[in-house]
Amino acid sequence: QVQLVESGGGLVQAGGSLRLSCAASGRTFSSSAMGWFRRAPGKEREFVASINWSGGTTYYADSVKGRFTISRDNAKSTVYLQMNNLKPEDTAVYYCAATKGVLSSLKGAYNYWGQGTQVTVSS
């Protein structure tokens, strides 16, 4: 069992930066692939980024590539999402997720989810 708690969301102006954190509890964090997803108002939850257990492999949605960076610190059982050059269309609730399977961009592949943290980007 893995429990996930996100933090770091907030209100920021366009062009600004935020760093989201996801603290995990449970023995399997260091062997789990992790992902970030987001859900904008009126839209489906969508993939943002994912990282494998070692941090050596990462995937990004095209919409965030070059602006967002996912990383992890297994000693702290934490995964991060550094978000730079934020745009109003990045406004969403951001969710952290863990999978017992292989690295994936599919939300159905993830077994555990956090409660989410709100990110609002003003123009």
Report strand %.
over 45%
Which structural category fits the helices and strands?
mainly beta
Q: How many helices does DSSP assign? A: 0
The major pleated sheet works out as: 7 strands, mixed
Principal-axis shape equals globular
Low-confidence stretches: none
The proportion of residues forming helix, as a percent range, comes to under 10%
Summed over residues and divided by their number, the pLDDT gives a mean of 95
Oligomer, anyone?
single chain
Distance between the termini: 40 Å
What is the β-strand count?
11
Q: What can be said about this structure in brief?
A:
This protein has no helices and eleven strands. By secondary structure, it is mostly beta strands.
Keywords summarizing the entry:
123 residues, mainly beta, seven-stranded mixed beta sheet, four-stranded antiparallel beta sheet, 0% helix
Structural notes for this entry:
The mean pLDDT is 95. The protein is built from no helices and eleven strands. Strands 2, 4, 5, 6, 9, 10 and 11 form a seven-stranded mixed β-sheet that branches. A hairpin with a 4-residue loop joins β7 and β8. With 123 residues, the protein is mainly beta.
